[in-house]
C-alpha cells in the first residue's frame, strides 16, 4: 500500500484544473435566446414590428435617441415593409431614431444588392415623411464612392465611435491589441465622410445628431439618401476632444435593437461559418485579433455573392440590448436547429467550434434575444 505525497497530489490537481478550465467567451450578451415561432411570414413580421415599436417607444420615453441596427435578407426586408405600413409609425418621432446596418455588400451605391437600398425602399424612405433625418441613417461605404473595402470597414468603425456618446455609453471591451485603428488623423475614403484632424470624437454629454430635421421632405426619393446628402442633423463633430479609444476599448453606440437575418449556412451579418472573423473579440484562443479590425471586418471572398462585404463583429452585435433573429425559408431548418441547440447552452459554454459551425449561435443581446422563425424554417421536431 502506498500513498501519494501531498505535494505531488496538489501538483496533479492544479495541472488538471488548468488543462480543463476552458477560456470563456467574452463580450456576450446575458440573455437566453427564446424561440418565437409563427405559421406565416406575415404573422412573424406583424409580431416582430409590434415588439420593435414597443421598444422604440419605451426608449424614447427615457432617452433622447434610439439606435436600431437593421438587416437585409428575406425576412428582414419583409419585416421592414410591415414596419412602414404599421399605423403606429405616425405617432413616433423618427428624428430621434438612428439606423445602422450590421453588414453591407461592397457594391455601388445604387446596386439592388445593397442591404441599405432595400431598407430605404421598404422602410427608411417612408419614414422620412414622419421625421426621419437622412443623416441619422448610418450606411456602410459603397464601392463607387470609397477607395477600397478597407476604407469602408474603417469608416464604419469611426462612424460608430462618433456616436458612442449619443446614448448612455457602454464601451465594447476589446481584447488586447484590437484597438489599433488610427485614433489620430481622421479617416477618409469617401466623399462627404471626412472627419476632422487629430482629435477624436467630441460627442460628449448630452448627445449628438439628435436635432429635428431642418427641411420637410414631401416627396421621398432614393436621391435623398445619396452619400453627399447624408450629413447628420444636429451634428456630431469630431473635434478636439478625446474619444476614449485607448485602454483596450473601442466605443460604439449601444444598439437598442439589432435585427439579424440568418443564412442557410448559419451566417449572420457577413460573419460566415469557418471564418476566423467570427471569433474576433470573443477572447477565445482562436480569436485572430487583427489590429483595428475587431469592430468591423472586411470580407473579400464571401461564399454568398457578392464577394466583397463589410460586417460588424460579434462584440458589436452583442452590445445590443435586444437581438431579434428574423428567419424564414425551408432551407434554414438545419441551421435553425443548431441555433436552438446553442440557445440551450450558457454563454460561457459556447466555444470556437460551435461559433465557427454556426455563427448565429454567438449572437445574444444584453436584455433579450428572440429567435423569430416561421414554421417552415423549423424542422418538425423544433416546431411548437
Ligand atoms: O447575405 C445576407 O444574408 C442574410 C440572410 O439572408 P436571407 O435572404 O437568407 O434571409 C442577411 O441577414 C444578411 O444581412 C445579408 O447580407
Description:
By secondary structure, the protein is an alpha/beta fold. The chain has eight helices and eleven strands. The strands form three sheets. It has a six-stranded parallel β-sheet, sandwiched between helices. Strands 4-9-8 form a three-stranded antiparallel β-sheet. β2, α3 (74-85) and β3 form a beta-alpha-beta unit. Residues 1-20, 168-222 and 228-248 have low confidence and may be disordered. The ligand O=C1O[C@H](COP(=O)(O)O)[C@@H](O)[C@H](O)[C@H]1O binds next to α3.
Short structural summary:
The protein has 384 residues and is an alpha/beta fold.
Task: Give descriptors for this structure.
binds ligand LXAUTJHC, Rossmann fold, 8 helices, 26% helix, 384 residues, alpha/beta, six-stranded parallel β-sheet
| CATH-assigned fold name of the domain at 33-165 and 250-378 | Rossmann fold
Principal-axes shape call: globular
Oligomeric status:
single chain
What is the CA–CA distance across the termini?
Answer: 59 Å
Average predicted confidence as pLDDT: 78
- Beta-strand portion reads 5-15%
- CATH structural class of the domain at 33-165 and 250-378: Alpha Beta
Bound molecules: the ligand O=C1O[C@H](COP(=O)(O)O)[C@@H](O)[C@H](O)[C@H]1O
- Count of discrete alpha- or pi-helical segments spanning 4 or more residues: 8
Q: Stretches where pLDDT falls below 50 for ≥5 residues?
A: 1-20, 168-222, 228-248
Q: Helix amount, in percent?
A: 25-40%
Write the CATH architecture name of the domain at 33-165 and 250-378: 3-Layer(aba) Sandwich
Compute the gyration radius: what is it? 21 Å
Number of strand segments: 11
SSE run: HEHEHEEHHEEEEEHEHHE
Arrangement of strands in the largest sheet: 1-11-10-7-2-3
The SS-based structural class is: alpha/beta
| Largest pleated sheet | 6 strands, parallel
Function: Hydrolysis of 6-phosphogluconolactone to 6-phosphogluconate.
EC number: 3.1.1.31
Pathway: Carbohydrate degradation; pentose phosphate pathway; D-ribulose 5-phosphate from D-glucose 6-phosphate (oxidative stage): step 2/3
Protein name: 6-phosphogluconolactonase
Amino acid at each position: 500500500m502506498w500513498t501519494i505525497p501531498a505535494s505531488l497530489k496538489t501538483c496533479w490537481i492544479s495541472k488538471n484544473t488548468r488543462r480543463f478550465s476552458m477560456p470563456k467567451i467574452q463580450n456576450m450578451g446575458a440573455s437566453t435566446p427564446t424561440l418565437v415561432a409563427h405559421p406565416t411570414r406575415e404573422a412573424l413580421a406583424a409580431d416582430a414590428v409590434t415588439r420593435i415599436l414597443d421598444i422604440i417607444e419605451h426608449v424614447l420615453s427615457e432617452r433622447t435617441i434610439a439606435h436600431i441596427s437593421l438587416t437585409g435578407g428575406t425576412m428582414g426586408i419583409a419585416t421592414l415593409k410591415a414596419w412602414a405600413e404599421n399605423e403606429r409609425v405616425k405617432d413616433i418621432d423618427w428624428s430621434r431614431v438612428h439606423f445602422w446596418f450590421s453588414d453591407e455588400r461592397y457594391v455601388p451605391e445604387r446596386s439592388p444588392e445593397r442591404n441599405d437600398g432595400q431598407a430605404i425602399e421598404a422602410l427608411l424612405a417612408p419614414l422620412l415623411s414622419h421625421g426621419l433625418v437622412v443623416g441619422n441613417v448610418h450606411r456602410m461605404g459603397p464601392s463607387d464612392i470609397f477607395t477600397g473595402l478597407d476604407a469602408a470597414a474603417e469608416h464604419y468603425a469611426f462612424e460608430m465611435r462618433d456616436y458612442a456618446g449619443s446614448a448612455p455609453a457602454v464601451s465594447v471591451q476589446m481584447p488586447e491589441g484590437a484597438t489599433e485603428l488610427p485614433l489620430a488623423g481622421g479617416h477618409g475614403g469617401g466623399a462627404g465622410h471626412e472627419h476632422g484632424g487629430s482629435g477624436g470624437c467630441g460627442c460628449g454629454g448630452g448627445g449628438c445628431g439628435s436635432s429635428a430635421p431642418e427641411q420637410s421632405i414631401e416627396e421621398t426619393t432614393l436621391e435623398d439618401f445619396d452619400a453627399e446628402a447624408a450629413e447628420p442633423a444636429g451634428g456630431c463633430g469630431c473635434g478636439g476632444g478625446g474619444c476614449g479609444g485607448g485602454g483596450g476599448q473601442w466605443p460604439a453606440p449601444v444598439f437598442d435593437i439589432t435585427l439579424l437575418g440568418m443564412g442557410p449556412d448559419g451566417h449572420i451579418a457577413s460573419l460566415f461559418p469557418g471564418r476566423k472573423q467570427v471569433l474576433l473579440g470573443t477572447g477565445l484562443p482562436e480569436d485572430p485579433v487583427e489590429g483595428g479590425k475587431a469592430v468591423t471586418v472586411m470580407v473579400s471572398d464571401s461564399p454568398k455573392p457578392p464577394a466583397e462585404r463589410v460586417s460588424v463583429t460579434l462584440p458589436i452585435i452583442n452590445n445590443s440590448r435586444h437581438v431579434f433573429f428574423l428567419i424564414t425559408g425551408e432551407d434554414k431548418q438545419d441551421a435553425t436547429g443548431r441555433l436552438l441547440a446553442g440557445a440551450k447552452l450558457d454563454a460561457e459554454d459556447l466555444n470556437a467550434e460551435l461559433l465557427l459551425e454556426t455563427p448565429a449561435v454567438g449572437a445574444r443581446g444584453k436584455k433579450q434575444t428572440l429567435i423569430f422563425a416561421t414554421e417552415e424554417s423549423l424542422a418538425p421536431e423544433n416546431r411548437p
